[in-house]
Amino acid sequence: MASRGGPRAAGTDGSDFQHRERVASHYQMSVTLKSEIKKLIYTHVCIWLLLLAQMCVGHLKLLPHDQVAMPYQWEYPYLLSILPSLLGLLSFPRNNISYLVLSMISTGLFSMAPLIYGAMEMFPMAQQLYRHGKAYRFIFGFSAVSVMYLVVVVAAQVHGWQLYYSKKLLDSWFTSTQEKKKK
């Protein structure tokens, strides 16, 4: 090997160290996926806070009902959707597989299920709005059913991508665990 200022070993140009400089691909993937999942969790927290604010304003009657409608029934169980996100964040520091699996299962239960129920609950009101042009609930002058369907669509995408990236992260963690067991 070459020293800092001295001669190099015969037959080498000094570039034979680069293979030791690379990070294993599953470690790179783990870091990238954790970053993506964190962005999705922060987006979910923003959606969650908006729904919480709407529920607080509606129940505490801080604004008239013609400005902020009372929450739909699906919004109450959706408040539990913060728990899977917290489990996901807790799984990252030590690559805790069990927390990540619990996060994925509870995302389906506490996040996706209320969103599906919400889409079904609001469907008759959406039909009435688009067939007859009648809306009875409003959020700052906009039809509440339109606003909440937009929330449902965005939240479903956030949780869907969160599940997808979590599965890929789980696979990369299993790859690194299997490689450690082989050694």
Description of the molecule:
A hairpin with a 2-residue loop joins strand 1 and strand 2 (142-143). Helix 3 (82-91) packs antiparallel against helix 4. The protein is mostly helical. It has 5 helices and 2 strands; from the N terminus they run ααααββα. It has one domain (37-182). The longest helix is centred in the last third of the chain and has 39 residues, at 144-182. The two termini are 27 Å apart. A two-stranded antiparallel sheet has the order 1-2. It is elongated, with a radius of gyration of 25 Å. The model has no long low-confidence stretch (mean pLDDT 86). It is found in: Endoplasmic reticulum membrane. Keywords: Endoplasmic reticulum, Membrane, Transmembrane, Transmembrane helix. It is a multi-pass membrane protein.
Strand order, main sheet: write it out: 1-2
- Helix count equals 5
List segments where confidence is low: pLDDT < 50 over at least 5 consecutive residues.
Answer: none
Largest sheet: 2 strands, antiparallel
Provide the structure class.
Answer: mainly alpha
**Whole-number mean pLDDT:** 86
Q: What is the helical fraction, as a range of percent?
A: 55-70%
